[in-house]
Design a protein that fits this description.
This protein is an alpha/beta fold. It has helices at about 10-15, 35-50, 70-80, 95-105, 115-125, 140-145, 185-195, 215-225, 240-245, 255-265, 290-300, 370-375, 415-425, 465-470, 500-505, and strands at about 25, 35, 60-65, 85, 110, 130-135, 165-170, 175-180, 205, 230-235, 250-255, 280, 305-310, 310-315, 330, 335-340, 355-360, 365, 385-390, 395-400, 405-410, 410-415, 430-440, 445-450, 480-485. The chain folds into 3 domains: about 10-195, ANL, N-terminal domain (Rossmann fold), CATH 3.40.50; about 235-400, ANL, N-terminal domain (Rossmann fold), CATH 3.40.50.12780; about 405-505, GMP Synthetase, Chain A, domain 3 (2-Layer Sandwich), CATH 3.30.300. The protein has a 9-stranded mixed sheet with strand order 2-1-10-9-11-12-13-14-15. The chain has a 4-stranded parallel sheet with strand order 4-3-5-6, sandwiched between helices.
Length: about 525
């Protein structure tokens, strides 16, 4: 392929690496340090390994592993080899993984060591050529194989429209959709955010987010790499640990649940946060109460932004101007936001409407779903986010709700239809409806409302029975935390279940529910 300019995302990130190859990139909990030079060399080994396995440009590499340094090497190695990275939540269970593997048809599946027998079985069913293991500590057959390869690699030329990643997002029909993100999509978003959020020499990012998610993988890591900054690279979020590390950081990115839990730590003070110049929140709405309490407690104003899997970030509160609690700020530079009614007519200031977005970061479309892709874009190629919002008099955007009933719990997306289909299939269930109920810690908790058959009995139709049955087949964050039983579901004149009525009637209780 002849390219005057290589638009591979890795080449763009590489431009931000420090001139000194020994400069710290990933600082580990045990004090170990991965330098930028090592990151470049190790990602080359992984790229060489992929090529040796027959992975060609455009081939998918499916990955379900815990956060580790080696997982970062693998991601960057995929970019360099021209492969398409497909990260998956480590909580996903068999039926979810089987769908992803059969739909994406990856050349390689990288899994955790524990379910290797199951992984091999699923890979055979999906026609996956290779299966490798990557453990929580970054060891395993994949790391061992990569170590045998050269530490130099000529990054494969890509153009902006070539795919870099596929992230699956559940649909209201219950069938997950693979959002296709190109090198150009990811680069455009990273460059804008790096500039807009004022990244500068000396910045240190406290990284506690998962890296199977766009927030932790793309937003956080890309910004740090573009800046040549070190990351305090923690395996997971721990509030007490976060408070202890804040004096070493200048930037912290989290979901609203993180901020709720930070506020529960007595050690969170203005003095402890004195060196932090920016606290960012996203992936779910930040409660105004949390925003206000954090400011009062620390003196810092959280910067909230808005985006989704299908395009990274779309809006942001300003860095150098008023950050308005309860809003997600303004459209990013180069991004156009429209708020329209159901007929497509622009909503007036203060009126709630459907949020449409257009920009270089907006995804290419849904993997192997051309009709669904066409449905989700207007004739002018604005993406229909499915979210409802409004502009205020100053141009700030407030997200009001979601037209597709999406539940965001702890920053992770849950679509009700998928859970409803499973509950409806249980013996003795007439029908069910899944809703999100407010929760001070997680933002929302998954709640299922069930109509039982008359005289139905058995453990499966108790709250505990339904929860335990679902635990065995779906990711833990999707499992309902509460089950209510009713005689009938409320419906409108067209027969559609009125979930707004359910949300008003079924509020979270303080009773203990197995989790």
């Amino acid at each position: 392929m002849n390219c005057a300019i290589n638009e591979n995302l890795y080449t763009i990130l590489l431009e931000g690496f420090p001139a000194d190859p020994d400069a710290a990139c990933l600082i580990l909990p045990d004090g170990g340090v991965v330098s930028y030079g090592m990151l470049h060399q190790e990602s080359a080994r992984y790229a060489n390994l992929l090529v040796s396995l027959g992975v060609q440009s455009g081939d998918r590499v499916a990955v379900q592993v815990e956060k580790s340094v080696a997982a970062v090497f693998l991601y960057l190695g995929c970019l360099r080899a021209g492969a398409v990275f497909l990260p998956m939540n480590v909580a996903y269970k068999r039926h979810e993984l089987e769908y992803f593997l059969c739909d994406a048809t990856p050349r390689l599946f990288v899994c955790q060591p524990q379910p290797r027998v199951l992984a091999d079985e699923m890979a055979r069913k999906a026609g996956v050529a290779h299966v490798f293991e990557l453990g929580d500590d970054g060891g395993g057959s994949l790391a061992e194989a990569a170590a045998e390869h050269q530490k130099t690699f000529a990054t494969v030329p890509r153009i902006a429209t070539d795919l870099a990643a596929i992230l699956y997002t559940s649909g209201t029909t219950g069938r997950p959709k693979g959002a296709m993100l190109s090198h150009g999509n990811l680069a455009a978003n990273a460059l804008v955010l790096h500039r807009l959020w004022g990244f500068r020499p000396g910045d240190v990012l406290l990284h506690m987010l998962p890296i199977f998610h766009a927030h932790g993988l793309f937003v956080a890591i890309h910004c740090a790499l573009l800046n040549g900054s070190p990351m305090l690279f923690e395996p997971r979020f721990d509030a007490a640990r976060a408070v202890s590390l804040l004096p070493r950081a200048t930037v912290f990115m989290g979901v609203p649940t993180y901020y709720v839990r930070l506020l529960a730590e007595s050690g969170l003070t203005g003095q402890q946060c004195a060196g932090v110049r920016l606290f960012l929140s996203g992936s779910a709405p930040l409660l105004k109460e949390t925003f206000d309490e954090f400011k009062a407690r620390t003196g810092h104003t959280i910067l909230e932004r808005y985006g989704m899997t299908e395009g990274g970030m779309f809006t942001s509160n300003p860095y150098d101007a008023e950050r308005r609690g309860g809003t997600v700020g303004f459209p990013l530079p180069g991004t156009t936001i429209r708020i329209v009614d159901d007929a497509g007519t622009p909503a007036k200031t203060g009126e709630v409407g459907n949020i449409l977005v257009k920009g270089a970061q907006v995804f290419v479309g849904y993997w192997r779903m051309p009709e669904k892709t066409r449905e989700e874009f207007t004739e002018e190629l604005f993406f229909k986010t499915g979210d409802m919002g409004r502009f205020d008099d100053d141009g700030y955007i407030t997200i009001i709700g979601r037209t597709r009933d999406l539940i965001i719990t702890g920053g992770l997306n849950v679509y009700p239809k998928e859970i409803e289909e499973m509950v409806d299939g249980m013996s003795g269930v007439v029908e069910s409806a899944v809703i999100g109920c407010p929760d001070t810690d997680l933002g929302e908790v998954v709640t299922v409302v069930v109509v039982r058959q008359k005289n139905a009995a058995g453990d499966a139709l108790t709250e505990t029975g339904i929860i335990n049955a679902l635990k065995a087949i779906i990711a833990g964050f999707k499992v309902p935390k509460q089950v209510y039983f009713v005689d009938d579901l409320p419906r409108n004149t067209m027969g559609k279940v009125q979930k707004n009525v359910l949300r008003q009637n079924e509020q979270p209780s303080d009773r203990a529910v197995p989790t």
